[in-house]
Design a protein that fits this description.
Largest sheet: 6 strands, antiparallel
Number of domains: 1
Organism: Brevundimonas staleyi
CATH superfamily: Jelly Rolls
Protein name: Cupin domain-containing protein
Strand content: 35-45%
Helix content: 10-25%
Pfam families: Cupin_2
CATH topology: Jelly Rolls
Distance between the termini: 37 Å
Number of helices: 2
CATH class: Mainly Beta
CATH architecture: Sandwich
Domain Cupin type-2: 46-114
Length: 137
């Protein structure tokens, strides 16, 4: 739900609400993006199923990316180094730096994600399609 208060846009979303993208062992739920933020940033929640191996190393030339680990013990690849991170861990990945994330643990993992500036969410339909082709027939 988005409401207007004092000429500012206020967003109030309950747990699980937002624009949802399913990608096999990973789900992204976008809470705010270019529509709500004037392309200043986007905020999303990434849910990783146990055993999720990631999508492959990649970088975003147009965006810095921030991760905050909410639950679980995911691994984050930064450049060429994988590191297991715990809840409360904060990671800022500058644009152009290769990265990935996975969840080799037996429990779900959840990460809060910010893209600065916003606009990354435009890529989500193509990313979902890519994951679908990787799953095979």
């Amino acid at each position: 739900m988005t409401v207007t208060a004092d000429r500012r846009d206020l967003i109030l979303l309950e747990a699980g609400e937002g624009r949802r993208y399913e990608m096999g062992g990973m789900t992204a739920v976008f809470k705010a993006d270019e529509v709500e933020t004037g392309c200043g940033y986007s905020v999303s929640e990434w849910l990783l199923a146990p055993g999720f191996e990631g999508g492959g190393a990649h970088s975003h030339t147009a965006n810095d990316e921030i991760f905050y680990v909410v639950e679980g013990k995911p691994d984050i690849l930064i450049d060429r180094i994988w590191q297991t991170v715990l809840p409360g861990t904060f990671v800022r990945i500058p644009g152009g730096v290769d990265h990935d994330f996975r969840n080799r643990s037996r429990a779900p993992a959840k990460l809060l994600n910010l893209f600065i500036p916003g606009g990354f969410e435009r890529e989500m339909p193509a990313i979902v399609s890519w994951f679908q082709t990787q799953a095979g027939p």
